[in-house]
Fold this protein.
Amino acid sequence: MKKDKVKTLILILLVANSIFLTTQIWMDKKLWSADYNFFAKWGENSIVQAITKKLSWVVRNGEAGASFVNQTYYPQKVVVNYGNFRAAYVNGDELYTQSLDEFSRALKALLREDQVVRYQKIEAEDAWLNILKLKSIYIDLKVPYKTKFIGQFLGIKNTPLSNYIKEIKEFILVPGDSASNDVTFYIKDFNDGSVAKFDVTYDRTQLMNLLNREIPASTVDHKFSFELEFDKKKANKIVLDSQVLLPFNKQKAEVIKSTNPIQDDHNVKNILRAFKYSTNNPRKYIETDNTLVYIENYSTLKIHPDGLIEYDAIEEGKGLRLYSDSYGNDPATPSFQESLNMAVKLINKIQDTTGKLHLSSVAEDPDKPGSYKFVFNYYHNGLPITMNLISDDKDILSLKYAVKVEVVNGTLKSYRHYVRDYESIKPITVDMPVPNVLDAIYKIANANAPYINVKDLHLSYEEDGQEEILQPQWHVRLKGVDNLLMIPVDKK
Amino acid sequence: MYWSRVKTILIILFLCINLFLLVSMMVSINQTITISSDTVEDTVEVLKKNNISVEKSLIPTRMHNMPILQMQNTQQDADAFAERILGEGYTEEKDGDVSKYTLGSSILTVEGCAFSYIKASPSTAITDLNETTVQEHAKKVLERFHLNTKYAVVQAVKKQKDGGYTVAFSQRYAKKDIFNVYITMTFTPQGLKFMKGYWLTPKKFTSEKYPIRHVTSILINFIRNEDRPKDKKVTITDISLGYRADTNDDVVNIKTAPAIPVWRITTDDGKVYYYEAMTGDYIIH
């Protein structure tokens, strides 16, 4: 009886081994010549890939992917003026989502292709600042975007608004009069600074509910610098731009830990797959600083040991074809939104960046339709992470962003990605009144200058590639190019 | 009892199947390609019609799958390399990836694995300089400079008009030549005058082996080669299968680099043509 059991066991092992060996012979590319890899080629067949994609969708449904695309163009802050006080919400706050949703719905109504634009130019010089004092939702995109791109963010291919304003950076949404039940957008033209008023037929009930909420002001109150006359060159040695948003309460923040997730061969293989490089690529170099270099498909891929990924196509148009993944038919000239989606899909294949990366700027080559440069930066719980990397490697030293993707007609031209994971270590309260921040700026900046002009001031983290633990700091942008100060916060 | 017999039969059957599969797999990995004499004759005929002559005996008829050869740079610290060659007290100039070291009349230029050394007035006299001794002198100098000579082989020794000798080294690993890794040294009776090279040292083969292209298909590709002179008849004097360190302009500071199997075709006008053995692609160099 015992002998019989041993026989059964041997039989099972032999059957399993023969299945394993057959699979190896059938499927392993290495065992077939370059011209004849019948079974391995099945895996690359478009029909098989489509079926695999459908099946994997069931598993992957609910993961990052599509929702990330929406989050890439989320503004850093949504500023809500409740009338008696003003709150600034960042991504992650419940009211950030609610306010932004309401704002987006109204904006979509304004941008709609069939919208009859009711437009009026505002002549008064201080009109913009006066409107900011009204009950409103204010959004500053930090960098200007073409109006047509903002339309495409919201799924509107050609918005009539681009006939009136070409580039937009700031919007204010205010409820209109109670008689019409309309809402009004005030939009600043980035090119000439002029202000335009747009009335939109829109049910303002939700907006009114939002602006009339009972919110405890003590936690969120903010003021613009012009309201406190910090923008006047009187006795002030430090002059702030009129619209620098200043917090008037203790700020909740977190100490975070920065890690490089590219630690082993498995991560490297994932990156190679994302760029459609063979994981058995024999053309692998290791540089003296342990940077891995791969050369394949008319392109070079470098994976630096500190997490920088660099991809460069040898020639424009010969790089990785991004659109074959996303679209059935190859579009001749992919639109801005399609190109952005392609870029985001590629980023997500390398790192799950749901809610962590935000689109920071877009550049379109006017002479080459379909050529876009997208720049993304990391955020952690609404606070931006400023790249200020210290390195002997000039490629890393020159990096001022987290990700830059250059796409030409749906083909990848270049890609830079400083891969980092950020996790919360402990919550802290930033207790540093604005006058103290201004004092600190004065001490650090050039005190000989008649005035120190501050263009922007907000809390952020600084990633230098060296420190593992990152503390929130006051990020101060002074007038002039690359004139940045980072001021440590007083914390509790 | 009946089931026990069935199991025994099945075990024997599956043992045979497993053995067969294992042998098939091993054969696939270490695949040997044999080219028939008819194919060789046809290839020679086609080449002849295109002004290329080749002896049938030069065409290899048996080929195996080949692994990639990993090469390593043993001179990663250019400053230390300069100190070993020039001694202390040199001055250094940097221009991008190129470092130029100067000490008196000696100049050393280093760019990644490539280097060039000139000593305008050599001062280490060699009394017994001849075609045989120059090889020993050259090897001793290379060892003094810590250049790994474990796999170095003398490729050629040439006498110069001034009584000096030029020695050219290449590398050979597991009976295969590595074609583009070299050091050329010129000695005069006064000592080492000139040295130039691109030096990487073989480390090991990869575990995976790759199928290689038949040499006959490479020869057919050679007919269409743009670099081959079309207006005159050429004779192929050598066809060799070896390795070529995969140099790339984007990778200068190499720690390790792959050497790819290549077919090298040499013609009677002294020209050499390299083809990637795995893909059959012509390597423009």
